[in-house]
Amino acid sequence: MAAVNSRESIGSLSMYFKRDYRHDNTFFSGDFEAEVIQKRAIIQKKRIHLRFKAYEHERISALAYSMDCSVSLAATMLLIAGIRNRDVSTQMVDSEVIRLLDPGRLKSLKMIQKYISKLNDEHISLFSLIPYIGHEVVDTTKTLHEKVNLWIDDNIKNID
């Protein structure tokens, strides 16, 4: 989970710290008078199942301890903070696209990305490109991987 490594995401939760918390080289002082997390206002009664790596779970547990709440509530708050942080969202989408594509496909996608950026006179990130690809490829394909591959096949012809 990228949000657990983001100083900005952790910083946005610091108003809830009842105990001291250290994030890498940053120290957040706890305050026993800190705001209490209102669980009902945050969670909408839908379940989600996630698996964390052991070191991520340890960091979320430490965060939960400093916020004086359960690990699941701390993970929920961290997910919300990560989604609201554009840098974290961009990093997650980019790393997932890189993981899904083979090197040749990734090279083609980056070539298309540069071409579109050049046409628009601004940098277009993979994060911006993925929703566009999903919208453009509206057929029976089911996975992001299949949609990206189909979109690359259709658009690489225009560049060559």
Structure overview:
The chain is mainly alpha-helical and 160 residues long. 62% of the residues lie in helices and 4% in strands. It has eight helices and two strands. The chain is elongated and about 60 Å long. The two termini are 37 Å apart.
Please supply descriptive tags for the structure shown above.
single chain; 160 residues; mainly alpha; two-stranded antiparallel sheet; 8 helices; 2 strands; 62% helix
Stretches with pLDDT under 50, minimum 5 residues:
none
Q: Provide the structure class.
A: mainly alpha
Fraction of residues in β-strands: under 5%
Mean pLDDT: 81
* Head-to-tail CA distance between termini: 37 Å
Secondary-structure element string: HEEHHHHHHH
Shape: elongated
Return Rg in Å: 20 Å
Largest sheet: 2 strands, antiparallel
Compute the number of helices: 8
- Quaternary arrangement of the chains shown? single chain
Helix share, percent: 55-70%
Major sheet: arrangement of strands: 1-2
**Secondary structure: number of strands:** 2
